[in-house]
Amino acid sequence: MRYPEQLIAPMRSDLTQYGVKEVRTPEDVDRVLSSGTVLMIVNSVCGCAAGKARPAVGMALGNANRPDVAATVFAGADLEADGRVREILADVPPSSPSMALFRDGKPVFVLHRHQIESRHAPEIAKILVEAFDQYCVPAKQ
């Protein structure tokens, strides 16, 4: 059963206010992951998503090095899209909230719920920034 949209709309806007693109279908997931660097956020209704994960994303996206696209699926609402992300991350245990950084469709970094719930938003943002600095820097010509 899906979460009612009126319940999760404010939680969606917690990410879209930072320019994070919502992907709600498996086709949207495949399209957004097709090239470049993408931060894929699995959003959630839990407290650690609200007080830690979503604010951390906003902080981290202020970094000079950042993914080409930041996108999100909502666990419990965007069921098919979330299922597609989990299918792509088949070797990674499912987790929400969670974040994965992809480069040209391949995961290069994953942050699980257990790594989120034990930290504060600035600490999570720092971890994301370190991943952005490692994987989102343009190749030297």
Description:
By secondary structure, this protein is an alpha/beta fold. It has helices at about 5-15, 25-30, 45-60, 80-90, 115, 120-135; strands at about 20, 35-45, 70-75, 100-105, 105-110. The protein has a single domain (about 5-130), classed as Glutaredoxin. The protein has a 5-stranded mixed β-sheet, sandwiched between helices. Helix 2 (about 25-30) crosses helix 4 (about 80-90). The N and C termini lie far apart (about 50 Å). The mean pLDDT is about 95.
The strand line-up of the biggest sheet is 1-3-2-4-5
Q: What would you call the shape?
A: globular
State the total count of DSSP E strands. 5
Oligomeric state as shown: single chain
- How many domains is the backbone divided into? 1
Strand content range: 15-25%
Helical stretch count?
6
H/E element order = HEHEHEHEEHH
Mean pLDDT: 94
- According to CATH, the homologous superfamily is Glutaredoxin
Largest sheet, if any?
5 strands, mixed
Low-confidence stretches: none
Helix content: 40-55%
CATH architecture: 3-Layer(aba) Sandwich
How far is it from the N-terminal to the C-terminal residue, by CA? Answer: 50 Å
The secondary structure category is alpha/beta
